[in-house]
Amino acid sequence: MYNHFSPVIPCNPRNEKMMGLIEKAAAIYQKEEISELPFSKYKIYFETGSRVEYEACYIGHRRRLNVYAAMALYSKDECWIKGLEDIIWAVCNEFTWAFPAHIKDEKDLQESSVTVDLFASETGLALCEICCLMADRISSMVRERVRSEVYRRLIVPYTEKNITFHKDNWSAVCAGCIGMAVMYCGSRQDFMRIEDKVMRSMEDFIGSYQDDGCCLEGALYWGYGFGYFCYFAEMLREYTGGEKDLFKLEKVKQIALFRQKIFLEKNVVVPFADAPHNYNFHIGLVHFLAREYEEAEIPDEMYAAMFDDDIRHRFADFIRDFYWYDPCMDKACAKNKTNIFYQSQWYLKKMENYWFAAKGGRNNEPHNHNDLGSFIIYDDGTFILDDLGWPEYDGDYFGEKRYENLCASSAGHSVPILGETVQERGGEHFSELLKADEEGLSLDITGAYQHGICGKLIRTFRLESEGICLRDTVNGVAGEIKERFITRIPPVIVNHSVSIGNWKIECINQEASITITENQFRPRLSICKMDMKQVETAYLIDYVLQAGEAETAYDFVIKK
């Protein structure tokens, strides 16, 4: 059986706990009819740009699919097979497996119905894996329907059309799912016809990373894109009898180690790019990587995703959490104090009393935010200075208005505003890492701004036991400079400083006026559970200072 699955869920305490949660959901589903995916919700995105209404119904089908699949693998009671066949049939009846947000022309119904996106690809793989796991129990009619729909919606369009994917998580998820679907339900000849195309997508995905293994899309997208890459790579290795082993690539190993470098504590991650603040990892993937690489650390399984923690209910993650989890695996976990991604320009360091992280890079990265020189301070369960992470996704956020959103704009990050000018988007706007070591880092972020707006802007962080010293060295700026700091904790101006909880920000060498403004935003809560409210308040702290042609240093002390 591919992926080392068996017809029965392995018995261990963690799986039993998961099944306890699933049994409760199953009992409710047994009393409910399967709902349709209504047109009234499908069309909302095309009318308003809002994604959440239809996607909630869509994900409801996937949750039900997971529940019945798990129950059928856990129990011999045929009522679960009946319910599983019904939800499979309902998924096969859906007009399209793609999200409306990924459909290019909603009026072209034929193309809409066979649009190949992340979720169509995930769905096809899920149905193939379920039918393979329970081939002797599921009706042959249902299995043939699945095969027909997978070919019609995924394999035929992928084979016959010039379909390419973004060089990010899309390459791994879409191409990986299609490749696995063919391995499950196609012939060797079918796989040979798409193999080169799939492998090019895997190369595109790996190529979206620097050699340091940093996921520029953020912590959760590492688990998503790299997770599906691993699912495909493991199946390919088994399918080819070990002849093709992508895990032998050094770059893949470095990507695998990213997860352990980005967690601050518990389930708290650095929220750079489109990322949450909390991320419950998939334990199946983590244990798989720990078996694959000696250097891979195993976090406390208390913070692994349980049922309903992954609100997208992806079957590939869900099923591997049962089968790839090893209750006997050593739980020992080293703690890296400092992690520097030199090529990607991410810096993370655990001090005795706080965590510090900062980033440079380019303002055209996957799931980009204009955030060069931005940083966070995390202390005792609280982000003192924060990165807002991702907002609720809508049509505007992936269109021309993206950088009007506070979460993506540099106006929503702890970086300077030069006059009224914020950082610009695009690959020509970048930073240079001048120095990074145990004591701190220095970035030239001049290029993050409009050309000619300033002569030089060097940002230097020095880390000390009780806090950080920040120096911005600037010349050639007309007017004023706003040194902005972002927090979600209500700040208080005290004389010439600002207090945030038991921390204080003070400009120690220049006269400044201080203003604080509030801005509300909606974090993206429809993916995973986070310690955030439906509507959050960001506090924008501005130290307004005079600037000029001459080189000036602006020194801040941020400490307890």
Description:
- By secondary structure, the protein is α+β, with helices and mostly antiparallel strands.
- It has 2 domains: 13-324, Glycosyltransferase (Alpha/alpha barrel), CATH 1.50.10; 338-559, Beta-galactosidase, Chain A, domain 5 (Distorted Sandwich).
- Helix content is 35%, strand content 21%.
- It has 15 helices and 21 strands.
- Strands 11-12-13-14-21-18-17-16 form an 8-stranded antiparallel β-sheet, with no helix packed on it.
- The longest helix is centred in the N-terminal third of the chain and has 23 residues, at 52-74.
- The mean pLDDT is 96.
Could you name the CATH class of the largest domain? Answer: Mainly Alpha
| Computed Rg | 25 Å
Shape: elongated
Q: So, CATH architecture of the largest domain?
A: Alpha/alpha barrel
Secondary structural class: alpha+beta
Question: How many discrete structural domains?
Answer: 2
Give the fraction of residues assigned to helices.
Answer: 25-40%
Q: Detail the poorly predicted runs.
A: none
Task: Report how far the terminal alpha carbons are from each other.
Answer: 56 Å
In CATH terms, the superfamily of the largest domain is Chondroitin AC/alginate lyase
* Strands in their spatial order, largest beta sheet: 11-12-13-14-21-18-17-16
- H/I helix tally: 15
Total number of beta strands: 21
